[in-house]
Amino acid sequence: MSLAIVLSRAQVGVEAPAVTVETHLANGLPSLTLVGLPEGAVKESKDRVRSAILNCRLEFPARRITLNLAPADLPKDGGRFDLAIALGLLAASAQVPTLALDGVECLGELALSGAIRPVQGVLPAALAARAAGHTLIVPAVNAEEACLASGLKVIAVSHLLELVAHLNGHTVIAPYKSNGLILQTQPYPDLSEVQGQTAAKRALLVAAAGAHNLLFSGPPGTGKTLLASRLPGLLPPLDEFEALEVAAIQSVASHAPLTSWPQRPFRQPHHSASGPALVGGGSRPQPGEITLAHHGVLFLDELPEFDRRVLEVLREPLESGHIVISRARDRVRFPARFQLVAAMNPCPCGYHGEPTGRCRCSTDQIQRYRNKLSGPLLDRIDLHLTVARETTSLAATAQGGESSASAAQRVSDARERQNKRQGCANAFLDLPALRQHCALLAEDEAWLETACERLNLSLRAAHRLLKVARTLADLENVDAIARSHIAEALQYRPSTS
What residues form the membrane-spanning segments (predicted)? Predict the structure, then answer.
């Protein structure tokens, strides 16, 4: 048969749309035409495939060859289609039975020797193949990653000849059986190692319990970074769906094969990071730091040192939980449901307000420094806390404070209450759910409205304040929001007057 069809998958963001590789052999002078909007690496695949087939002592068809990667309007890049193209040529020239390729998808880059090399983005392709009810052929290095899509039949191969023998029925490759990715056991830094800072630890606990955004402000050396690094250890473990999402992002973003089941990510980009580095982008859109922090923590240290235009791009994903990157030819949507933790100094030198009088910054310098952060961005941060300098001596030990394990149990109990009540963390409540689950007594509501007017808080800030009060009630295991919860939540909102 001179026509063969092989199924594969492209990579667009964290999605894996289906691609059909059609191969047609016709009479005429030997040639090879590749169509279907291939990028540079895909155009080069015809040379890799030719050498791999010849070096495996198989026959490369000396005919007029047309290869079509459908759909034609979907850009294709990378070497992930090499294996599908090679199988299409072998099937069209009757070296491999076409029936053996029914219901089979394949991914893999070919070496000139015929060895099959690993590719990026196998997990999204595996999830899509499972949804389609197909078998997936992948490089042996990627097999463990593909098996994260439970219930998928995975065929792991390391050489083209091995796969040809399997398809011809000479030798049978058994479906790959996963050994299970190793659970990361590296512990997070423990909260008990932080000396003092009782108020900051309380804010950290509230942020973890309700998935709230948090801003620490204070002079250098007060433990802002130390506190932020303890937050991932307080968060509940990822459930299966969240873990698969995190693993899929890692699969797309990393050239190295996935080797371990992920924990909640903790990303800490430098303040010199550009906008595309933070939110993603490029001619071929790649995930940025906010996507790599999906279901985890994004820590921005020295917040005012970031370029203001870079920080402003955080406003949309903080509200929506995703980022859409538009290019001339396509639009790519990346998930970005992260928890923002930021730290800043009160002034350029860092010592404004210190009783020692070390600060030499002028009023104008302090105002310009703080004006680097826009009101709309600060409005989206639920908890604002000033971290004061502790007077604990060097001889004091950190023992005796609450450990991460104890605090994490309290956070887990609060999150369980939230999931049973509304199906999500308090920070993600929409307006109808907010009205339903954060109702106040009439006198408390009037008191809150008066407080918001005096502090000049926006309606968004008032809604976020209610969410924090709901989290405080959950930490105390009570159903109704009391005035004490509202009062504590108000302490975390700075006045905008």
Answer: none
